[in-house]
Amino acid sequence: MPSRQKQLIFSVSGLLGFCCALTAAVATGLPFWLRGAVLCRTGADLVNATGPELDKFLGDLSYGLFHGQRVKQCGLGGRPSRFSFFPDLLSAIPAGLHVTVIFFCGVTILFSSVATGFFFFNAFGRPYETLQGPLGLYLWTFICCVSSCLVLVLFAAEVKLQHLSERIANFKEVNFVFQTYTERYDRSFWLFFLIFLVHGLNGLLIRLAGVQFPFQDSKEVELSGGGADLMY
């Protein structure tokens, strides 16, 4: 492939990598990872609420990785409040898993920035080592794909398996018991899914530029002289 076309492809990949780094940084800090509704089970059971009557006992809940807000409804009007994960909710949530999600968000931001630099370096510079040359782009892109995928998987596990929404809704609640009614992933979660797809696209663009996949060609082992080696 002509060098002009390679420069164009690597430049486009670099711009995509920069957009991924910027998007990941913004999405990590926004409180729009999950939105849902929580049911005041105690109040609903007291009056045997069913059907439309349940609306009086449904509160809103939305949060991100660092803070969020909730509105508790127990039949007497809403009680809005804001909360922070650090340090308020550390005793109520699976802290290790939550910190791991934030860690891989940071990894995604860092290596998306690194990949951006190396894309432009390969477009306009003269790489001289494997990690700096075209083959190294597969490494940085692969790390970005894996880290963004882990963010999605670990956050989904925290929400679904660890019942994060119920833990938040019932934090420091003595008289009422809240239950998750509806949950849906919000824009920040889907932005990380988009980041995962864009890095996958970058991997295809690297291949389109004519760079072979690592370990694609198996090395042939020379067996000549094997009979002589067995003889003394």
From TrEMBL:
<keyword id="KW-0812">Transmembrane</keyword>
<protein>
    <submittedName>
        <fullName>Clarin-1</fullName>
    </submittedName>
</protein>
<dbReference type="GO" id="GO:0007605">
    <property type="term" value="P:sensory perception of sound"/>
</dbReference>
<dbReference type="GO" id="GO:0050957">
    <property type="term" value="P:equilibrioception"/>
</dbReference>
<dbReference type="InterPro" id="IPR026748">
    <property type="entry name" value="Clarin"/>
</dbReference>
<keyword id="KW-0472">Membrane</keyword>
<dbReference type="GO" id="GO:0016020">
    <property type="term" value="C:membrane"/>
</dbReference>
<comment type="similarity">
    <text>Belongs to the clarin family.</text>
</comment>
<feature type="transmembrane region" description="Helical">
    <location>
        <begin position="189"/>
        <end position="209"/>
    </location>
</feature>
<feature type="transmembrane region" description="Helical">
    <location>
        <begin position="95"/>
        <end position="125"/>
    </location>
</feature>
<dbReference type="Pfam" id="PF25807">
    <property type="entry name" value="Clarin-2"/>
</dbReference>
<keyword id="KW-1133">Transmembrane helix</keyword>
<feature type="transmembrane region" description="Helical">
    <location>
        <begin position="137"/>
        <end position="157"/>
    </location>
</feature>
